[in-house]
Amino acid sequence: MKTEETRFDLANRIFFRLYQCANMLHKTGSRALEQEGLSTQQWAVLGALSRPSVQGGMSLGDLARYLMVSRQNLSGLISRMERDGHLAVMPDDRDRRSRLVTISASGRQVWEHDAQPKIRAYYESLLGEFSVSDMTHTLHYLLKMLDGMERTDAAQLGNGAPADGEAP
């Protein structure tokens, strides 16, 4: 019984710290890129779309799945980023019902030349005292937690709960 209570207490502390980290990431990450007019959400979108494997763009649904957000939440963000000239949205030639989101030339300029140096400095300010081993272990455990969350999400969906952003 004591072991169960200890595990619960530690789990509670881990998830509370994770919650705090997520909030601080949003606050301090957005502050790090405020001169470029980028939030952490926009940073994530530009990072996802700047990968060589998606040079032709991504469907809104694929981008939402990759970022693990709902299409509804992503739609407003994409519209604002398109309005600001960072993204282009066009019909997908393979599926006219789907829209492809790509990083625009000006979005790529902002990402590669303006944001990247600041992101590097931000990472160094947070992880400067971490060894490569510390970073590797942290990544390992975060991926392990994410895997558990994805299994839980799939199990919840299997029990009739709607996916985020989907109708029941």
Overall description:
The protein is mainly α and 168 residues long. It has a domain at 20-128: Winged helix-like DNA-binding domain superfamily/Winged helix DNA-binding domain (Arc Repressor Mutant, subunit A), CATH 1.10.10.10. It contains 6 helices and 3 strands; from the N terminus they run ααβααββαα. The protein has helices at residues 2-32, 40-49, 60-67, 71-83, 105-127, 132-158, and strands at residues 58-59, 87-92, 95-103. The chain has a 3-stranded antiparallel beta sheet with strand order 1-3-2. The protein is globular. The mean pLDDT is 91.
Question: Could you give a quick summary of the protein structure above?
Answer:
This protein has about 170 residues and is mainly alpha-helical.
CATH superfamily of the domain at 20-128: Winged helix-like DNA-binding domain superfamily/Winged helix DNA-binding domain
Q: State the strand order across the main sheet.
A: 1-3-2
**Cα shape:** globular
Low-confidence stretches: none
CATH topology of the domain at 20-128: Arc Repressor Mutant, subunit A
Radius of gyration: 19 Å
Residue share in helices? 55-70%
Averaged pLDDT, please? 91
Number of DSSP-assigned strands: 3
Largest sheet: 3 strands, antiparallel
Provide the descriptors you would attach to this structure in a database record.
168 residues, Arc Repressor Mutant, subunit A, 6 helices, 3 strands
